[in-house]
What we know:
- The complex is a heterodimer.
- Chain A is mainly β.
- Helices cover 9% and strands 40% of the residues of chain A.
- Chain A has one helix at residues 102-111, and strands at 4-9, 17-23, 26-32, 38-42, 56-58, 61-63, 70-72, 88-89, 91-94, 97-101.
- The radius of gyration of chain A is 13 Å and the shape is globular.
- By secondary structure, chain B is of the alpha/beta class.
- Chain B is 33% helix and 21% strand.
- Chain B has 28 helices and 40 strands.
- The longest helix of chain B has 18 residues, at 723-740.
- Classes of the chains: A mainly beta, B alpha/beta.
- Chains A and B meet through strand 2, strand 5 and helix 1 of A and helix 19 and strand 40 of B.
Amino acid sequence: MNDFIDIGALEDIPSQGARVLRTHVGCVAVFRTAEDEVFALDDACPHKKGPLSNGIQHGRSVTCPLHNWVIDLSTGRATGADEGGVATYPVQVRGGRILLDASSLAARLAAQ
Amino acid sequence: MGQKLVVIGAGMASGRALEHLFETAPGAYDVTLFGAEPRGNYNRIMLSPVLSGEKTYEEIVTHDAAWYAEHGVTTRFGEAVTGIDRTRKVVITATGETPYDKLVIATGSTPFIIPVPGHELPGVLAYRDLDDVEAMLAASRLPGARAVVIGGGLLGLEAAAGLKMRGMEVTVLHIMPHLMERQLDASAAFLLARALEARGIEVLCEAHTAEIRGQGRVEGVLLKDGRVIPADIVVMAAGIRPSSALAREAGLACNRGVLVDDAMVTSDENILAVGECVEHEGVCYGLVAPLYDQAKVVAKTLTGQEAAFTPVEISTKLKVTGCDLFSAGDFAEGPGREEIVFRDAMRGVYKRLVLEEGRILGAVMYGDTADGGWFLSKIKAREDISEIRDTLIFGPNFAGGATLDPMAAVAALPDDAEICGCNGVCKGQIIAAIDGGAKSLDAVKAVTKASTSCGSCAGLTEKVVALTLGDDFVLPAASGMCKCTDHSHDEVRKLIRAQALKSIPEVQQALQWKSSGGCASCRPALNYYLLCEWPGEYEDHGKSRFINERVHANIQKDGTYSVVPRMWGGITNAAELRAIADVAEKFAIPTVKVTGGQRIDLLGVRKEDLPAVWADLNAAGMVSGHAYAKGLRTVKTCVGTEHCRFGTQDSTGLGIKLEKALWGAWSPHKFKLAVSGCPRNCAEATCKDFGVVCVAEGYQLHVGGAAGLDVRQTELLCTVKTEEEAIEYCAAFYQLYRENAQYLHRPYKWIAKVGLDWVKQQVVENEESRKALTARFFHSQKFHQKDPWAERVRGTDSHEFAPLADLTQVAAE
Lengths: 112, 813
């Protein structure tokens, strides 16, 4: 069961930027790419918990600001030689609004 | 299910043995690994760089939790094995018994603590594991702390050098007449002692320790001749003893170490031993190369293959940065032995070969050790050198008749020449790896492990790879900016200028970028190049900046930030200090620290608090200190003629004027200045990117210093007569650097590339060029001298500091 809730406007996130969503499972980074795709994933690098929302975004990836791990926004997995990953959450953009699947947050909370 | 293999000891030898085992027979054994230290395998021979601060512990870990998990190793770190019951085939620990089919004893060695009175006092340390290093580091943090190192062998000298680098006063006590007597002859040891003394390490030979003194903890060392050396710590590096007690109690045959045969099997056919705890044919080993050879044999024996450990000639290198020495073979004098000696006392170079019957028996080299591998290969091969004896000491260059090209020396090496002593990798193995498909330096390192332990052979490894790959070899620096383009930094800058490219997408389009939007490496560089080239026209692209420059503070490991307000020339006052104190209290900022650049750093500020912190600092008249910027950082000053009885000029005043002229500018990398009021140089101007040393007749301008990853002394650019000239030349130099240097190159790197003569020509000799540079700089400053904090306080980029939404405030369902 999906349960999409409105978390803000696409406009609220600058292109190639990210904003933080505070949730009961911790901070979730919401990225907007140059192509206006939106991705949501845990704001903690699998390496040393660096805030990914503060990294430089390029293509569909973000480079962690602490030690330059590159995380694939669509899968949450580290790329290249690094291994590990973070949880991702389904998002949709409809009519300029960003919708996030709250059931995925609930599932993550239950798993913790 | 595999057989049960228990390994006692998680050191370098057992780690390597497990690697070989999993390579040849994955799944053959279920492995349980016991380690006395509460951590896994790390590269113990790299503790010296950790001590000296050149590496961190994380960098020397060889196997992490993921590796153990991947290979199904059950780890029992921090759990001491207290006994072995060989009849029931179990090992015993405090928590119970663990059964084995095969057992590997790798208990290593124990540092020998000389049993003089006082050896049990707190502050007497060994140099064996990370805990010892941490205890030394703790001691070194006390101001003026003193260390005495007992033992002038490899380990002792590395400890001494590391402690000195950490700022301690260090004395080395050595019982023999000269240092490292097992590896060096007296002449080389003399040069080494002189080099150590030049770094401020006191070396006392023939120093017999009588007693370690102190009330409750170490206070000093008394020598037999009555001298007393004060000390806060005493490091015992007087040798190691094989740790064979566990094996001995289990009834295994032991002498000094655990006795093993050529297959590394002990007197019990189900028990093997490896590493420093082992005695093979009367010899115990302490250097890593033979232990790695033993590890290979252990893995083979465990998988039922025939293998025999054969000791080979080993060479030694000292891992003290700046002290190059090499020794191999037997170099004692004796009847029938002859010597060839080369000395260049002024350069501190010494080479000595010991020959017998036309063959090299031993080699000792100090100061220039590049030919060490070549000599070692001749020793190992027992090669007849009678034919080349006349020129032998000059090394392979001369023997090959070629010019003094370092590549020729490497090319002349035979295939069995040792390249990496730690991992026992010879030239032929590197070539084989390349033939087997390793097409880059990194690939070769991954396959052969060459230069992955102590790293002292990195340059040699690279040369072998370069030679073998020939034209296919690409040094990373010679290639494109990043994987997005084949254009180098210099080419991209020229094309931006020539084609008048004015935005990142334009550059990427015109220069055919291979990725859609660039990457985290090229985008910040492009943003800077455009900003520098088109001041006032190009609009800064914040999303192509590293977070620190986007939020005008420095990110810390926990995601909080540090904030440094500018203090012009390092001068502050009561009102500013009060405002800083108020901010620290109001926002519960955990750490307030004075920086090396004479500023105050507020550490641990939460990102969402940044605008409010800045607003309060702005209100007190302070602006961003740009401590995060690839741009002007700080101008450090001494008090000059204002207060100092030696001052020749107003160094503080000039420092403030320079800082007011240069602040806000962006550059390829950070840019640090200092102004000293006299040649005593209290502001340490000669290790800055640009340093001014005031003299009675004017101002000496120095450039290209550094005191970070690399330490460089500045070179003199010129001397000028007035403050105005000093500022003009400084601005011209900064602009020349801004316009020409590659992104992330500090001035010293850039000067090394273009040459100081060219810089002098542009800034000093050619007045027209200097005036033009200065004019361009101050034009650009019109656009960049804006306090970014004030802009953020007014609301610029406010999205950076506030969450998109807060779902924790929404009622949970």
